[in-house]
Amino acid sequence: MARADTGPDFIEALARGLDVIRVFQPRRPVMSLTEVATAAGLARPTARRILLTLQELGYARAEQGGFALTPRVLELGVSYVRSMGLWDVARPHMERLVAQTHESSSIAQLDGSDIVYVARVAVPKIVTLSVQIGTRFPALQTSLGKVLLAGLPPAEVERVLAEPSRSGIEPRWRPATEERDAVLRGVRAKGWALTDEQLALGIRSVAAPLRDGLGNVVAALNVNAHAAETSMEKLTDEYLPLLLKAAGAISADWALCEAVPQVTAS
Q: pTM of the entire structure?
């Protein structure tokens, strides 16, 4: 059935293909044809044609008991990052930050009430939750998300957090509205955010905003650590100054790139 409120140029087949990709959630790497069709709201023959098309293009593969996505799906997210120029700008600063802290560093942006990771430099450590480009977590329980939410007007925060999370994660911290607003006011005042096992056990991080040339918060940068290895004091006393320096440098480089006139050769 065609969806409502779409324009005359809307391509239903493309929308259905994206719907099928999105139904593969955390902890559900392999899904049967029936499961995919049900989750995407499609007839089985339609879901089957889409999965076989994705398989032909290299974005899906047949597994025992069903279908699974392939790493090639990450190209879709990487294309977005590359189109922004974000990775080219951020990479040297993130690599330097990781070399200084020996901890992983990521950049994320808001997508509804979730954050989505768009760039990452990782160190090999065992953590509670796996993170890669395209991973999404509930925003409010992460340092990255707190920074991004704090950059929004209060009315916009309400609208964003009213959207259901599509992360598949049940966070440990579920604050009341008053506590949430107080936390975000503190982030706005300080210019950075902390999280201490509020998303999941063992995860502790600090984040700072990345801004464009007009001072708008367009993304967030973090340093992520294991709670058993890194104290809150070390996170704030040692890692935070390095993080703020890196975030400032990325923001400055990003603003400079935006200011460069775009010339199209004829």
A: 0.72
pLDDT of 238: 96
Report helix angle 177-190 to 154-161, nearest 10: 130
CA–CA dist 100, 66 (Å, integer) = 44
Q: Which secondary structure element, helix H or strand E, spans residue 118, and what is its range? A: strand 114-121
Q: Which tokens go with 52?
A: 């076989």
pLDDT value at residue 71 = 78
Report the distance separating Cα 71 and Cα 135, nearest Å: 13
CA–CA–CA angle 223, 164, 219 (5° rounding): 30
Give bridge partners of residue 206 from the DSSP assignment: 194, 223
What is the pairing mode between strands 60-63 and 193-196? unpaired
pLDDT less than 70: residues of the chain: 1-5, 26-27, 77-85, 126-128, 258-266
Closest CA to 50 of 75, 67, 30: 67
Q: Which tokens belong to 50? A: 């889409």
Nearest Cα residue to 36 out of 62, 4, 7, 73: 62
The total of other beta-carbon atoms located within 10 Å of residue 180's CB is 17
Q: Which residues have C-beta within 8 Å of that of residue 60, sequence separation ≥ 6? A: 51, 54, 67, 68, 69, 70
Distance CA 103, CA 97 (A): 8
Mapping DSSP to helix (H, G, I), strand (E, B) and coil, where does residue 146 land? helix
Strands (E), 152-265: 193-196, 203-211, 217-226
